[in-house]
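C-alpha cells help. Consider this.
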Amino acid sequence: MVTESNISKRTLICDLDGVLWRGDEAISGSAAAIAKLRAAEFKVIFISNNSYSTPETICAKLTDFGVPAQSSDLLTSASAAAAMMQGQSSAQGHKKCRAMVLGGPGLRQALVDAGVDVFEPKKAGAVVPDAVVAGFDPEFDFAAVDEAARAIRSGARFIATNRDPTYPVPGGVVPGAGALVAAIAVASGCEPEVAGKPEAPTVELTRQRIEGYAVVVGDRPSTDGALAESLGIDFALVLSGVTSAIPVLGGESIPDPAPRWVSEDLAALVPHLLEISDSIG
C-alpha cells in the first residue's frame, strides 16, 4: 500500500520459475535485470509456488545464477502452507499438529519450523493426521495417493501448496503440483485449501512485505496475474515461461484484456519499470 510515509518506495514481487530460470537453466539477462532494479532502489521479493526446495537451496541457486539473495527475500507456497498449519494449531489451543506430507524437503522444513510433526504417507500407520499437505513431489506414486485419500476421507484437512498444472523446464513443461493434487482430490472426493498464489494465505503474506509502489512480475496470468489483482497492484507478464503469444497445450495464453506490460522476458521489461521508478522520484 502506498502511504505518505513510503510514497517513494518500490517493491518488485518476482516469480522464479519461468522468469529467472527454467529448471536448471538461467533465462538470459535475468540476473542483470534484477541488479538494475535493485540499483533503482526496488525492494525485491522472490515469490514461488514451487514448494520443493528449501530457502537455503533457492538462495544458493539464485547466487549461482548471479542474483545474491537471503532467505528473508523469499516467499514460497511452503511458507504459506506452514502459516495455515500454525493457524490450525492456534485454533486447537496450540496443540501440536501432525501432517502427512507429500512434497519435497522445502515443504517438510517449513512445516517442521512451524512446529508441525510431519511424516510421509508410508509411515502413517493407523493414525489419522490433522492434515494432508501436498506439493510438488517427483516421487509421487499410487501408494501416496491411496494413503492421502484415505486420511482425507477419515477427516484430515486437505492443504495443497498450489494448483499449477505444469512447471517450466528447458524445452517445455512437466507436471506441476496441481496435477498431483488433482489425483488426491479425485480419489478423496475433497477439494483442497490452497496455500500458494493466488490464494488468500499468500496474498496476506505478500501484502505484509510491500512498501510503496509494487508490481508483480510473472509468467502465469492465472496465478501471478491473479495475485496482483488481489493485491490491487500492477502485473507485468513475461513470455519466458508457460505463457506464449500462440498458446500451446500445457501453457497459458495472454489474457484479454492484456496486463499493463507484456514482455519477452525480464530483461525486456526493465526499461518500463525504470520509467515508473523515475516517475515516482
